[in-house]
Amino acid sequence: MNNSKQLVSSLPLSGEANPTSEIRSPLPPLKRGASQNSKSIDFCPINKFDHLEFYVGNAKQSAIFYSQCFGFAIAAYQGLETGSREIASYVMEQGDIRFVLSTALSPDSPIARSVLQHGDRAAVIAFEVPDAVVAYKETTARGAVGAIAPTETEDGYGIFRYSAIQGYGDTLIKFVDRSDYQGAFAPGFQRRNVETLHATSQGLGLKAIDHVVGNVDWGDMDRWVKFFAETMGFELLVHFDDRAISTEYSALMSKVMKNSTGSIKLPINEPATGKRRSQIEEYLEYNRGPGVQHVALSTDNIIETVTKLRAAGMEFLHAPKTYYEDLAARVGHIDEPIEKLAELGILVDRDSEGYLLQIFTQPVQDRPTLFFEVIERHGAQGFGEGNFKALFEAIEREQALRGNL
Ligand code: FE2
Predict the structure, then answer these.
(1) Which residues contact 115 (CB under 8 A, 6 or more apart)?
(2) Region 277-292: what's the mean pLDDT?
(3) Residue 371 placed within a domain
(4) Residue 355 lies in a domain
(5) Can you give the residue range of the structural domain that contains 316?
(6) Which residues place a Cβ less than 5 A from the ion ligand 1?
(7) According to DSSP H, which parts of 56-213 are helical?
(8) 213 C-alpha to center of ligand 1: Å?
(9) Ligand 1 centroid to residue 73 C-alpha, Å
C-alpha cells in the first residue's frame, strides 16, 4: 500500500544533475482555494517549521544522543525492517520540535556523499505549508532552483505531499503538506513511541524551533537575503553589521529574514574582516561550504532545561565570569537569580520589548560546525545581539583550543 521508496529515493542533494529528473508524479493541479496570485504578498504561505532533517553517519547512535542528552523521544522509524533499502531514518520529537536523523545504507546514497563532504549536518529545513504545489510553483517561478518537484506518496494513513527547492550550500528547503495525512510522519515510517531515560513526551522542556541560522560565503549574505525576499516573500527583520558583531579578532555580519507571520525566522551570517580567522570562516572550512550554523530551541524554563541538559552530558560554551559582574546594571531587573544563571552559564539580553535568556552548546559533532541554542523569551524579539561580543570571545577561546584561531 505505501510507496515509501518513492519518498526516500526522491531526496537529492543540491548540486545533483537535473533535479527535475526526480519528478515521480506529474504536477497535480493547484488546490482549490490556494492563492494563484503571484503578486499577493504572501504568495508562499508557511504555517510553521515542520521538521529539520539531519544527514548523519550513524543515525542509530545519533538517535541515542538526541534522546539521552537532549530529551527527544523516537516517534517513528524507517529502515531495512520497514522495507527502506537505501536510508534509515529516526523521527525524534519533543514539544513541537521534530528532527529526522537519516543515514545512508549504501555508499551510492546522496546522504553518504553528504556525510563524506560535510560531516553530520542539518541538511533539510522543512516548512509545513497549506499547499506544497503552490509553494513550489510560486518560488521556482521567482527564480528558486527546484530540487524535488511536487510529489505525493500514500499509505493507509492518507496522502503526504511535498516538494523542495535549493537553499544555501547543499541545504534543501522542503515544503510539506500533511493536511490529508494522519500517519506518524510520512508513508514508509512506522510509529515507534520509544521513551528512553529522559525522553518523555515533555522531554527536557524544549518546546519549539525559535530560529535557524545559516552561514554563507564572503559577500553572499545579501544574495541570500534577496533569495528569501524575492522567491519566498520573507522580510528583513533586523540587520547587524560588523561593528555590532566584532571582537578583537573576528567579525561577522548578519541579517535576519522572517516570513509574513513571523513564525519562521532565519538569520543569515557572512564573515567580515578581522585580525584572525572568524568563527564563520572556520565553519565554512570544516563544513566545506555554507550551511546551517545553529538551531535555537525555545523553553519556558531555561534554568530547569539547562540543568537537566548538563546532567545529561550536554556541553555548553563557557561564559566568562566577568560577564555576570555588570549584568544587573546592563539588563535591569529579571525574574531569574543571577547566581543561578552564572552557575549554568546562561546569558541575558534586553531590548525595548523585554529580555531573553540564552545559552549555546558546543558543536554536536567533531567538526566545529553545527551547534544548538536554548532560548527563553520574556518579550524580547531579538537574538541576543548584546551577547554577541561575550559569546564570540567564548567561541574564540574554543577556536584557539582547536588551533583554528
Ligand atoms: Fe541564535
Answers:
(1) 55, 56, 57, 103, 104
(2) 93
(3) yes
(4) yes
(5) 206-402
(6) 296, 373
(7) 59-68, 110-118, 132-141
(8) 7
(9) 24
The mean pLDDT value of the chain amounts to: 87
How deeply is 91 buried, as exposed, middle or buried, from its count of CB atoms within 10 A (0-12, 13-18, 19+)? Answer: buried
- Residue 273 CA to ligand 1 center (angstroms) comes to 21
Report how many domains make up the chain. 2
Give the integer Cα–Cα distance in Å for 81 and 104.
15
For residue 91, list its beta bridge partners: 76, 100
Strand pairing partners for 176? 128, 162
Q: Give yes or no: residues 98 and 172 share one domain.
A: yes
If asked whether residues 175 and 108 sit together in one domain, one would say: yes
How far is ligand 1, taken at its centre, from the CA of residue 217, in Å? 18
Q: How far apart are the CA of 383 and the centre of ligand 1, in A?
A: 6
42 plus 101 within the same structural domain: yes
The predicted pLDDT at position 15 comes to 33
Ligand 1 centre to CA of 394 (Å) is 15
Task: Please give the distance, rounded to the nearest whole angstrom, from the Cα atom of residue 395 to the centre of ligand 1.
Answer: 14
* Residue indicated by cell numbers 494513513: 157
Among 81-85, 179-183, 301-305, 393-397, the range scoring the smallest mean pLDDT is 393-397
DSSP label at 317?
Answer: P
Q: Tell me the CB-side half-sphere exposure of residue 68, using CA atoms within 13 A.
A: 7
Confidence label for 192 from pLDDT (cuts 50, 70 and 90): confident
Q: What is the CATH number of the domain that holds 398?
A: 3.10.180.10
29-43, 310-324, 337-351: segment of lowest average pLDDT: 29-43
Contact 399, 279 (CB under 8 A): yes
Q: Is 56 found in the same domain as 27? A: yes
What is the arithmetic mean of pLDDT over 256-264? 95
Final residue before a domain boundary, out of 169, 200, 231 = 200
194 and 270, same domain (yes or no): no
Domain-terminating residue out of 170, 200, 230 = 200
What does DSSP assign to residue 393? H
User: What's the 67 CA to ligand 1 centre distance in angstroms?
Assistant: 22
- Report yes or no on 4 lying in a domain: no
